[in-house]
Amino acid sequence: MRALVTGGAGFIGSTLVDALVANGAQVSVVDDLSRGQRAQVAEAADFHQLDVVDERLVALVASIAPEVVFHEAAQIDVRRSVAEPVFDTRVNVLGTVNVLEACVRAGVRRVVFASSGGALYGDTDVLPTPETHPSRPASAYGAAKLAGEAYGSVFQQVGGLEFVALRYANVYGPRQDPHGEAGVVAIFAERLLRGEDAVINGDGEQTRDYVYVDDVVAANLRAAETPTLGAYNIGTGRTCDVNQLYALMAQTAGVDRPARHGPAKPGEQRVSCLDASLATDRLGWQPRVVLEEGLSRTVAWFAEQRRAQ
């Protein structure tokens, strides 16, 4: 397989690149390095530093001529999307349309799009939430992911492009960025290992569905190969609130210091949990790594990074 991964120097993207290379794929990466790290990209992959909104992307994709494009590049900070909706729209809507247009012109067979379960559905009436639930995004980020899926459907109908959207739950694991607002697992891991206070926003009873990055990568590989198209939730169906998450991570890190509670973040989603049974039925995918094991692996990775420094 000839594959192109946008955002391939980032957390999920670089892990996906590793798996593709290990499976014998010929892999190219496009990343502007605004958040990703060049050092995370496998040496066997062909790297191109470029923003996905850049008009030169069309010619680049044509020169690579991939069979499958995994579109992972995104502005991922929900709170920044609320504060800067125009910027979020530029990256997450215009960038996605630019990728889709480049794919159609280059004759790409399939695009696998990194969408969002929690941000796209918003607070829901049904838990775990199935794909049939109405989409009620409460942020520009969620709205942009919904728009990306809509554009993917249009390019599928008009341009003959096969389009699969994977609606991720809260992805965590090694290489997650501990800086900024995204990635509570990475933030907690770094602060616990540094002996710093971890801060929980509000009462800590907001719940999330945490899915390990290797399981997300496995879903992408399945989505690239199976005949089925459409949108699929990629989650565990298991909820964990932030207080429980911190307790598990503190125990893993050997820390008995309690977290501090700060003010709640206005507009923060209270509940999110995805029903991934459709992905099991049609993609042959299911999560393998339970939360306790995934957190142990993640804390161990962050600890190793600290020792290496």
Automatic annotation (TrEMBL):
<dbReference type="InterPro" id="IPR050177">
    <property type="entry name" value="Lipid_A_modif_metabolic_enz"/>
</dbReference>
<dbReference type="InterPro" id="IPR036291">
    <property type="entry name" value="NAD(P)-bd_dom_sf"/>
</dbReference>
<dbReference type="Pfam" id="PF01370">
    <property type="entry name" value="Epimerase"/>
</dbReference>
<feature type="domain" description="NAD-dependent epimerase/dehydratase">
    <location>
        <begin position="3"/>
        <end position="235"/>
    </location>
</feature>
<dbReference type="InterPro" id="IPR001509">
    <property type="entry name" value="Epimerase_deHydtase"/>
</dbReference>
<protein>
    <submittedName>
        <fullName>NAD-dependent epimerase/dehydratase family protein</fullName>
    </submittedName>
</protein>
